Amino acid sequence: MKQILLIVLCSLPCLIMAQTNCSLFKDEAHKSACELYWKAIEYNQGSRESQELFVQSLKACPTYGPSLHEMSVPYLKRGDFFNWKQLMDRAVAADPIWLSDRGWCLFKFLRDYKNSFADLKRLYDINKGQPGYSGDGDYNLRIIMALNQRAMGNLKASLAYFNECITDHEKKEWVGLFDYLHLGVTRMMLKDYKGAIADLNRETKKYEKLADTYYYLGLCYKKLGQDQKAYTNFTQAKELFTKTGYYRNDPYCEVPDQVYLSDIEDELKKFKN
Amino acid sequence: MKLAGIKHHFKKTGNLILFLLVVSISIKAQDVTKTTKFPQQVGDITFDPKTDRANFELCGNGFINQYYGLKTTYQGGTKAIKKHLTSNYKYKTAYKNITGYVTIRFVVNCKGQTDRFRVFQLDENYQKVKYDISFISHLTALCKSLNKWIPGKYNNQVYDTYYYLNLKMVKGQIKEITP
């Protein structure tokens, strides 16, 4: 074991170097664009120095995907969706690998479910059903496809993508941190409250202290007329939300199925009345 | 071709060339990779005496952070922002063809006050567009009326930050609000 660890540790600098090895490119344009890309990302994201170096990188090779992508990111994060889209469209035109990021961001930042799904479906087809993961690593992109379908009102299509992804990942024990939560909420939308409870209970096994799950469990039990269980779950949700601080939250955007403390408190108030 | 016809043809062709020139210039101007002078930070908003309040105070040394780095938020979160904007939005039939995005970017200072509002308008294909001026004024006024901002904080110190609100419009109705 120690030997394996030693080999891995010794190889680490080589692996890191491999990332920066622009000399692997055979043509001068890509090599130069690559070198300028690595210089650009040494500066703060969105800074003048960084953006200017990306421009130089793209002058050397106008289709260099990493520079197009990385230059686009500050525009996305700061609400300039015109420039973000222009750059990402060029990246995608150069290489469909960038469909993953464009599709995910269309969902996350712009709630453009139709175009997000179109991008991810294209990638899904190219990669034979394995579109990969979201940029933040939170989701397999099949889950984003499912959430897109759900947002467009196609609940059964949504369920099909959830099931495909989760079944696949259960075999490999790779189920995403919030997959059962979203699946459960989708079943709740389909009024399959018992099915939703089963999924949400699976979520509690995956992420025991997530307040949001107990809120949705409360809603399902309420719909089934099991008020005591509903109350217990809403109380548990509030306890976790206020004391442990484990709830769905993201520095950039409101996330799917995000629960607010006021949502939980509103439900609890109904029991007091 | 008669002289009048030639003149007319030349005028039409000339207009077409002028039109194409204007279009090509505007397309060229829209390519950010052709930019020669970037702001210190992408998205920086400089003070404009025509639109910005002179008495809007910035607390720092002029450097304004981004909301996501310092967790600038609103009392009640995005849920409260959505409630305020959707319940106070007044739809008019004149807005029925508006489908696209309106993004309003602004500064939340360390006291939780806002100013320096800038508006970006896109159609549903992410192309720049100009919507009805009264519609844009109405949305901007709604964003300005949000007055429960919680300034960004780091190490118990409050800071000025940039924030934006992106409104997805479908047939003149607010469908989604991010972030």
Automatic annotation (TrEMBL), chain A:
Database matches in SUPFAM superfamilies: TPR-like
Keywords: Signal, TPR repeat
Protein name: Tetratricopeptide repeat protein
Family annotation (InterPro entries): TPR-like_helical_dom_sf, TPR_rpt
TPR repeats: 211-244
TM spans (from-to): none
Signal peptide: 1-18
UniProtKB/TrEMBL annotation, chain B:
Organism: Mucilaginibacter aquariorum
Protein name per Swiss-Prot or TrEMBL: TonB C-terminal domain-containing protein
